[in-house]
Amino acid sequence: MAAYPLTVGFDLDMTLIDSRPGIKAAYEELSARTGTHVDAEAAVTRLGPPLEEEIRRWFPAERVAEISALYRALYPEYAIASTPALPGAHEAIAAVRAAGGRAIVVTAKYEPNAKLHLAHLGLEPDAVIGSLWAEAKAEALRDHDARVYVGDHTGDVRGAHTAEALSVAVATGPCDAAELRAAGADVLLGDLTEFPSWLARYVAEGADGTEPSAAATA
């Protein structure tokens, strides 16, 4: 793989996009199709881990694979159009490009559905890698030589650290600032609107291959 001065990875759900409205609608349709109650309001408070973890709450173990496949098939019709980008998402990717870098998305979401979200919203990362959660995200981060990973979940912090990347956490998902800090996030931002200015400091102070200074990680 060609060497680039900077590669930044981003999580998808609740980092770049507010997928709660779409996921809620998909779960409601899944419940209607199967005749099994799924508390969609509760489900969207637990976004981050793989789909199968949520499906196990409502269906017996022997049906998890079948129901997960049905949910993923329903997803394009019920979840894409109603899902907005989070504030700062477009600007965050643009900031990476302006710094001469590459932006990739590494997500636990089924990759074809992740790509549908990005295309619908006009978000254009350089690569999209799906079906990776927590520490497993390190595989893609290492493959793309990502030195920064931005996410909203403590699992994203673990994934960044496993890849020996800087963990930049945004408090826009199910994990609040205290949880993200306790998990070891190196940088804590309120949301992605704060990312471009942080990235500018990081690039100025360390993204040429040296270690970023304390000011860049504060």
TrEMBL record:
Domain of life, source organism: Bacteria
Where would one find coiled-coil regions in this protein?
A: none
Q: Name one Pfam family in it.
A: HAD
Q: Which InterPro entries match?
A: HAD-like_hydrolase_sf (IPR050155), HAD-like_sf (IPR036412), HAD_sf (IPR023214), PGP-like_dom2 (IPR023198)
Q: What is this protein called in UniProt?
A: Haloacid dehalogenase-like hydrolase
